Structures are given as structure tokens and as C-alpha cells.
Amino acid sequence: MFCFSVCPAVAQQIKVVSGRVLNQETKKPFDKEAVFVYAFNTVAAAEDVKKKIDDNEAFGLSTDAMEVVGNDGYYEIRVAENGALIFKIGLAPCVLEKVNYRMEINAVLDAGIVLEDVSIVGTLQDIKPAPKAPTIIGNKLLLYGTFPIPAQFGKPNARLIIQPYVVDCETNDTVTYTRPLIYDGPEFGLTQERRMNFCPANDPLYAFVAPKPLTEDRMSLEWTDTVPIPDPTRNYHGTAAILLEDYTHVYYDKQVLVNTCETKRPLKFLEFSFNHQSLNPDDYRERPKREKRNTAGNISLSFLVGKAMLDPDDPTNAEQLDKLKSDLLEIVNGEGTTLKEFHITGISSPEGSYASNLALARQRVNFAHSQVTSVLPARVLSRVYQNPQAKVATWEAVADLLEKDTFPEAAAAVREIINRFPKSQDAQYSQILRLPYYTTTIKDIFPKLRTVHYEYKHELYRELTPEEILDKYQHDEAYRSGKKSFALYEYWNLFKMIKDPHELEALYKRAYHESETMNGQPWILAANNLAVSYLARDTFDTSILEPFIDRKTRGVNVVRTRIDGVTKEIINPEAIVANQLAMYIRANNYEQASVMAQILPDTPQNEMMKAFAMCLGGYYRGGTTAEERMKSRKVFDLVKKSSPINGVVMDLAMESKGYDVLAEQEAAKLPADNPVCWYLKAIINNRKGEMGFEEAKNCLINCFKLDEKYIAISASDGDIGKDLYEYTMDMYSMSKEM
């Protein structure tokens, strides 16, 4: 491997040059060797370096840029339009290409002598593929394997059927079946055509028959497939049913493991976070609605003994009556308010005759009623429903007050009399009058029972003030508990006044569901606030914002006229789409997150969010068109540069020897107190095979020493593998015992 340093570009026209590098022998991209492209802004500098490389003296030389060719053979690099490129692979001589103002430069390289991985293979006795670790990228499971078919297993008059399927490693449930592999012997194909009446559609497997025929010779069948999976956080293995059949019977039937439960997740250590976006509350303020309000209270008026006249020596009588009159007049004279009902109930104490007490209570309530309503105009009073009532307090109420005032013996004595004469309040009085506590204790309770209770109902045609709304939330238990519903404009005010996040989330939920029940559509402000609250505590519910997203409409903040021809609505508000993208990522639904990323506009605010969404969905490499490759390259570069850890993660995610070299160089700069750093170094060394196995073990041990949670992660990690994991655990256990 040669060592170069990259120098800043000199002031001249720098262009992006791209192209493809192929193997001269196979005419395909290199799959086992790393191909490096070095850029020089002058041809002379490139020629000097080429000579030193060919003379094996290139250590420490400088280039203006360097890139690694991808697995698909494509590269892209910035270079001066009159500069030069050097292509280098393995020990073969490098190739120099002058740019000469070209935008596309393709190269065909001779790899020279390449030492291939050596596998010692004996005579095959059975179809037994070597299980490999699958890869999960986004919501897709990448499966691959090789099916070695021994000689004499196939026949000209036979059909080979390989049906791979995916199994959940934890539940052992079959998740899905992949595309089958079908190989027909020459004679079987001809006979099958006649058996199907020369109509291939009659054979359900015809569409899957491979062009390559089944023969009696040894065969090696390469297989790859990509399938969607329901939960990318779970592990899955690939199994295949293999059958060989002739015209009459199945002569071979076996289930084999193709892909293990040890899964590669190249982006598992990717670092990212999003700023959750809020809607402007002023854009979504709800109009106040007319509502009926109930008000109730008690006033304690002192009357002259045995009369329906207020005690003139008690100043609180006038104060309480004046306050009630003032409240009613405020409603009557207020803007947007109408008094609908007024009820007053007078209660007298129980001493004396029940009949006379009730008569006195009626007189007193009529007196209080006339005093209060005297201030109301006749036109108003005639439209107010009134139902004054009189009651006599019970001796049970007397007992309750005695108990409350810490006179338990007197309370018990009163209750004992009530139980002996349950149906006659007069009989109860005559007996209670004889109690020794009557004059000293019981008699003092009576004034507390002589009260007037009032209740009035009024309709508001105005918006409640924020203070009134907050008071109702804080002091009316029916509204606070959710038994009664707030109007949406009241929720709007509460969202601004309540500060506790738990209370706010509960209010968001109430507003969301109540608006959905009332209007058939949730209130968008409550929905977005609820989504932001969920995201802030790292949870998700992708159904919250779904009603406000139209996937058929590409773009955000699209203004559309409703069916009434007048009302305007905004389709795909940008904050909603951005937060739904974050929701989908939290839910590990990277495909839908990628869809949201495509709806969001290309703005500086959205750039990193879109890049991470596309990256996690697997759109960071490859592509079938130049535009797709350019977009995936942009995603790769943005995410790679977002943090030192992400630089290593993205290089490893490319899964090529060239990028493994870059990953090793960048991992060396990571802090040694970060367990992720050591885990990534373990992966890098493990990819070197036997020569890196011991160092990979040491890196894993360093990781475990810093944080043992990575032990569980490595146990099912296809980038670590069973052998390295078990060896490391043995060594780690020994180190802890020492």
C-alpha cells in the first residue's frame, strides 16, 4: 500500500470528473482488490509520482485529491481540467490518464498477479452451502450465498428447485419467500414443454427457469436477493428448500442454512439527531365558540331569630348580597353574555318544629330571592328560568359538623337518636333537646346551617380571557380531569400558558382526539405539538401526523382550494413532513423516511435531515443512472463529513478493501476512551482475515472494558462473526479473573 498526502488545490479551473474502472480480463468491476484514483492538477506532477510509484518509492508523496472506486466500478473526483489522474490497483503498474478537459474518463486495468483467497475443497458429497452473514440496510435484508451442486446430482431429465425463505431468528416464524432458483436439464425442458401443451404459462415455475441448464457435472450457483423485512432491529436467517425431481418423483429433498442469524448492520453506529420543527401557533388559532357556563356558590346570611329579615347588625349580609347582585348585573349588561337560569335554595337549621322551620325557610328564601333579583330589569327577569326552593337541614348534618369540630361523643349521641327515630325529625329534636351537650355544644352548630345556596347559568358569546381559561383548567376538576372538554381556542391558550411538559402532552392528546371526534380530522396544531413532545422523549407514533400528509403531492406548503371553492388549505406543511420523517426513523421505517425526504425541499435547514434519511434507507452508494449515482455520492459525502465516527462508519459501509483502508486511517484519529472507536477497529481488523484476527480480538476487549453493553451487540454481529466473538469472550473472561 502506498502512502499519499492530499494538498490544497492551486487556483485554476477545477472540475468534477467521473468514470468507470473495469478489470481488463473480466470486463467487470474489481470485486476483491481496492482501486485508488489519485488526482493531480498538473500533468508534470502526475508523471513524477507515476515514476516513483513504478519504482516503488511512492511513500509520503502528495496528491491533490484521492478517491476509492466503488464496488460498481464508478468513481467521481475533483481535478484541474488540464491535470491528470493516476489509477492504481495492487502490485500492478499504475495507469496515468491526462484529463485534457474531459468530464468522463473510463479506465481498463490489468490487475497483474492478484493473490486470491484460497479455499481447499474436497470432493462434494452433498449440497451444503457455507452459511454467510446477511446484511440489513434500511428495511431491506440482503441475502447471498453459493449452492455447490456435486457431480451426478443433476441429470438431463431432472429439474433443480431451490426455494430460499427468510425466518425470524427469535420466533422461528417464516417471514417471506424469495424468488426461487430453477434449473432444468435439457431433456426435462423439452418434455416439460410438451407436458404443458406447449404453453409455458401452464408451468408455474417457468418464469423462474434459468438460462443455464442443469447438467451431471459439478455446478456452483451464485445467489443474491434483497427482501423487505418488517422490523430491521430483529435478526433473520436465510434457509433454502432444495429439491431435485424427474418426471415421476422427487429424488432429493433437503433444507439447508444459507444465511446465519449473525447479521451485518453497517450503519448501526451512525450518529445523528434532528431539530424537531414547530408550527407557528398564530397560524392555527381557532375561533371562539358560544358556550353555556354554570356558576354556583353559597352565601351565609344571618336572619333575625324566627323572622325572614336579615340581621342589620351583621355587615357581611350586605357585602354578600351586593357581590351576587354585581355578578348578575355584569352578566346582564355584559357584551356577549345572556343570563339563562337563576336558582336560589334557602336552608334553615333543624331546631324546633319541622313544619315551622320549613315555612320560615320559604319566607327567608323568598326574601333573599327578591333582594337579589330586584336589580334585574323586568324584561330580563321574565326570560330567566327561576326555581327558588326551601329546605330544613337534617340532624345528620348536625352530627357531621359536630364530628368535624372534634365533638365525637355529641355526634355519636345525635346519631343514636336519629337511628331510633329515623322517620320523624320532630321526634329527633325532642330527644336531642334533652342531651347535656345541647346548650353547650349543639346549639352553636345551628348558625352554620342557615345558608342560602345559589346557582345561575349563562351563555357567553365572547371569547374567554386567557386568565379565565387558566382558572377553569386549574380549579374546575371536571375540565382538568377530562370529563368535560375545552373548546379548541381554549386549548390554544392553554398550550401557551402551561409549562409542565407532562401536562402539555396530556393536553395535546386531549385536543387531538376531541377534535378528531368533533370534526372528523385532528387539529393540526395539537397533532404537531404531540409529535414534537413524543420525539423529545425519544418515542414515536407514526399515525399522529399521517392525516396531514399527501404522498401524491410532491412538495411542501402547497396551497389548495377546498371543494367549497373558497376555503384554502395547506398540503404537506414543511414542519409536519420533517417531523414525520423523524417519526419514521424512530420507528425504524427507513423506506417511508426516505419518501418524506423526497417530499422535503432541498434547503440548508433540511439538507442533513434528508441526507441521513436517505442514508439509513440505503441510498448512499450505487445507482443505475448517472443522476442516481451523483445523489448517492452526495448523501455519502454529507453523512461521512458529519462526524469523525460517521466518517469511519460510512467508509466501512461501502464494503470494499479500498474504503477499509480509508476507514483504518480515520479510525486511528478517534479518541481511545470511546468504546465505539474500538468496536469499529475490531471490524476493520476482522476484515483482514487471519492476519488481523488477533488485533481484532484486542480491540473488542478494549471496547468491552469501556462498556460491556457491546458484548450483546457483538454476539449477533455478522461483521464480528462467531469465531471472533467466542475467542474474544474467552480471553476477556480470563482477563477479568486475573
Write the layout of secondary structure elements.
Elements: E1 4-6, E2 14-23, E3 35-40, H1 43-54, E4 61-63, E5 65-68, E6 74-80, E7 84-89, E8 95-98, E9 107-109, E10 135-137, E11 140-149, E12 159-168, E13 174-177, E14 181-184, H2 186-195, E15 219-228, E16 236-245, E17 250-259, E18 291-299, H3 315-333, E19 337-348, H4 354-373, H5 378-381, E20 385-386, E21 389-392, H6 395-404, H7 408-420, H8 425-432, H9 446-449, E22 451-460, H10 466-475, H11 477-481, H12 488-497, H13 501-519, H14 524-536, E23 558-561, E24 568-571, H15 574-586, H16 590-599, H17 607-616, H18 626-640, H19 644-653, H20 657-667, H21 675-686, H22 690-706, H23 709-715, H24 721-737
Helix pairs in contact: 3-4, 6-7, 7-8, 10-12, 12-13, 13-14, 14-15, 15-16, 16-17, 17-18, 19-20, 19-21, 20-21, 21-22, 22-24
Give a description of the structure.
The chain starts with a strand and ends with a helix. The protein is built from 24 helices and 24 strands. The protein is 38% helix and 21% strand. The radius of gyration is 42 Å and the shape is elongated. With 738 residues, it is an alpha+beta fold. A hairpin with a 4-residue loop joins strand 16 (236-245) and strand 17. Helix 3 crosses helix 4 (354-373) and helix 12 packs antiparallel against helix 13. The strands form seven sheets. Strands 12, 13, 14, 16 and 17 form a five-stranded antiparallel β-sheet that branches. Strands 18, 19, 20, 21 and 22 form a five-stranded mixed β-sheet that branches. A four-stranded antiparallel β-sheet has the order 5-3-7-8. Among the domains are: 4-109, Sandwich (Immunoglobulin-like); 135-259, Immunoglobulin-like, CATH 2.60.40; 291-460, 2-Layer Sandwich (60s Ribosomal Protein L30, Chain: A); 643-738.
